[in-house]
Target: Phosphoesterase
Amino acid sequence: MLHRIIVGLLATALLNVSGCQSGSHTHSLSYSHNHTQADAELEPQWLAGDHHIHSHYSVGWDRSVSPPKPILAGDALYSTPKNARMASIHGLDWMVTTDHGGPNHSKVNLDMAYPELKASREAVPQVLQFYGMELDTPGARHSSLIIPHSDEEAHQLFHIEKHYNRREVLDESTRDDESFMLEALSDMHSHTHRPVVLANHPGRTATGLGEYTKVTPRELRDWHDTAPDVAIGMEGAPGHQANAINPDGSIDPAGIRGGYDNYPTMGGFDQMTAHLGGFWDSMLGEGRRWFITATSDSHAHYTDGRTDFWPGEYSKTYVYANKTYESVLENLRNGRVFVTTGDLIDALFVTVTNTHTGHTANIADNLSAEPGDELLLTVKFRDPDRLNFNNENPQVNRLDIIVGDINGPVADRTADRNLTTRVLHRFYASDWKRDEDGFVTLTMPLSQLSSSSYVRIRGTTNTNELEPQIDPPGENPWHDLWFYSNPVFIHF
Model:
């Protein structure tokens, strides 16, 4: 019986790939690739993706029976092949299917979601499709769990979900403890194929700026200390960014971006990322390799009455990698990433050169220097001259060079401030010209640096806000666009 159910679901899912259902649309934005597939696998390039996507296996639950019975599409609506097709239409090269759990959901993933994922890989081969889930995180809220592509991936996820997912058991309070998450991370760190864990929407439960509840700086430091190659960062720009858009495209004046009802996002980014000198900078100031991403958290499109964009429609996480599963995951793990909203840019190179030694470092790399060495920063980005998925062609109007000191571990593990973080320089559109390929190149000396530091880049369409301000209800997300790079680390 179960086999017939799975076959029927797969047939329906594959039929859905051939065309867009309710809420889908075509668009003039075209992502043409000049490389063949073989070239793409051999040459590193910026590959756009999304690691937080729900399918109809994010189920509802019939709790009138015991054990509770899963209800297909009870929370998220679409099949994995449809999500993959929409990801491709919206310019993504890779994605992760991340259904959240419930009582015995590990069997739903193993017996139903995984066969559909394998069929989706066949149906939409141009998109690398990782297996994963939104972990109902012990002692916290949610995190993206990304499983490396291997012959063991199905049973690897089954093991993790079965043993550690908070909601896998009927009484989730028995697992809702931070120490249980550290046990899970220790287990994952011992795997031959190590997964990746990213905290999802970490500041959503905060009640004010720096007033954390379910997800705290100390907790995330504990994760990173326990498994630094597994717990590698957090969503910088959370999903549900279409929360203020009605199904007809008009703006709901009460809609709140990201569902951040207690303390808002800032330029569409979580306070843990967006607040200059805040939590992210405090982690970087310890020298931690703690990185950010951007996702859709897609459950159902706003035209279907929900709060989401399609994967890749609004937010993108770009990874500099070859187009293979192994390369994408390892370069994501190592932070070779920038994130953007609204297709504001589609390429970003940040390079620091020690002109004395001739050595260079790019995003997420380390560079050694001695006092007196001349350091040169080069930023090269492409602001594409084409319409995004809101039929607009947004322009980068400002680019900020942000630096902070690296002073090592903090004494107070609850700290969420790095008082040394500052904007070293602001470039405006009047300061640059595009070349014939659409790239802008900016250079500046880093003569002010004489101790270990990090450099990260932030850009925006918005020249009215020197720092991203809290997002008011009813804000149109398409008119407040930002991009962020992960840092370059400089060690004196």
